[in-house]
Design a protein that fits this description.
Layout: H1 3-7, E1 26-28, E2 31-32, H2 43-71, E3 73-74, H3 77-80, E4 87-88, H4 92-98, H5 101-132, H6 137-152, H7 155-165, H8 172-178, H9 194-221, H10 226-234, H11 239-267, H12 271-276, H13 288-298, H14 302-333
Antiparallel strand pairs: 1-2, 3-4
Length: 334
């Protein structure tokens, strides 16, 4: 090999740069291009929700619009049968009910009933949930089965059972109480007065609501850090101190949501009162739901009944607003 050949080396060809140019693949100079979303972008969630929203609009939207329309009309039996056209009444129905002392008595009774049922439900639910953390596995299983069975029982069946338990002549509760020394409850009528009768109905509502509260709180209790409880005990806190300063703060979001939901449900109680009083609740047993039903379908004042129902909806919307606010707060924390 000659000197010329040894000094002349073959240089490999220079690679062409594969880097994109400044403007390639970008929305402009130096700006990254928009990446396309997978599966249709922002329109996909609304497309999937459209059938559900349509069903809600048909099932809830039309009745609500019809309710609002009736509340501003004079609508009775002649209008129902088509003998007369509905007459526009403006705010007359609302003025009538808001100026009626009986209506405000029903409102106060409904609020007291719902508040009492919610407090009793939450207290019993918390106590049972805490108890389930301290029992053996098979006992917990039996209690959970009983809770689910009572939760799944139809309201009509549960109401019939309570009517039998508190029956004047054949009630089991009167018989059991009469077995106590110095107590004679044979023939006692629990529904002779409003307070006692509503207390029985409240127990029925609580009995049906406690299982959901217990199951939800039991799931929440599994998220309480055991390390914090142990540290609180080492610091000298007793059972109440551990519950107050460790367990309760962790469960606070769940408790707020359950309380709000329970208040919404208990303010809308209808079948328990209606069936317990054989379809004709007396004046001292009237709640907003039954009072609206009686005005519309017993007195045939559909406009007045719709106005009462609309006021009830507005009251419930206030509770729903609190619930949604708590949901948004929890979402922000997460």
């Amino acid at each position: 090999m000659s000197a010329a050949e040894t000094t002349t080396a073959k240089v490999p060809p220079t690679r062409r740069s594969t880097a994109p140019s400044a403007g390639a693949g970008t929305g402009g100079a130096g700006r990254p291009g928009k990446q396309r979303g997978i599966g249709g972008g922002a329109a996909l969630p609304w497309t999937l929700l459209a059938p559900c929203l349509l069903v809600l609009l048909l099932v809830l939207g039309y009745p609500l619009v019809r309710l609002v329309t009736l509340s501003f009309q004079n609508f009775g039996q002649p209008q129902l049968w088509g003998f007369q056209e509905p007459e526009w009444a403006g705010l007359a129905n609302f003025t009538k009910i808001l100026g009626d002392g009986e209506f405000w008595a029903v409102v106060i009774r409904t609020v007291v009933f719902a508040a009492g049922a919610v407090i009793l439900t939450m207290v019993l639910g918390m106590l049972i949930a805490l108890l389930l953390q301290r029992v053996s596995g098979w006992v917990k299983t039996l209690i959970n089965i009983a809770l689910v069975a009572s939760w799944g029982m139809p309201i009509i069946v549960a109401t019939a059972i309570f009517k039998w338990l508190f029956d004047t002549d054949y009630g089991v509760l009167n018989w059991l109480l009469s077995r106590l020394p110095g107590v004679d409850m044979i023939g006692h009528n629990w529904f002779a007065g409003g307070p006692q009768g509503l207390a029985v109905i409240m127990l029925l509502v609580v009995w049906g609501a406690v299982p959901f509260i217990v199951i939800t709180l039991s799931a929440g209790l599994t998220q309480v850090p055991k390390e914090l409880e142990e540290a609180a005990r080492l610091d000298g806190a007793g059972s109440w101190g551990v519950f107050r300063y460790v367990t309760l703060p962790v469960l606070k979001p769940i408790i707020v949501m359950l309380t709000t939901l329970s208040l919404i449900w208990d303010m809308g109680v209808f079948p328990q009162v209606f069936v317990m009083r054989n379809g004709h609740p007396e004046a001292e047993f009237q709640l907003l739901t039954t009072y609206s039903y009686d005005k519309a379908f017993v007195v045939n004042d559909y406009g007045g009944g719709s106005a009462i129902a609309l006021v009830t909806v507005i009251l419930l919307l206030g509770v729903v607003a609190v619930y949604m606010r708590q949901m948004l707060k929890i979402g922000e924390v997460e």
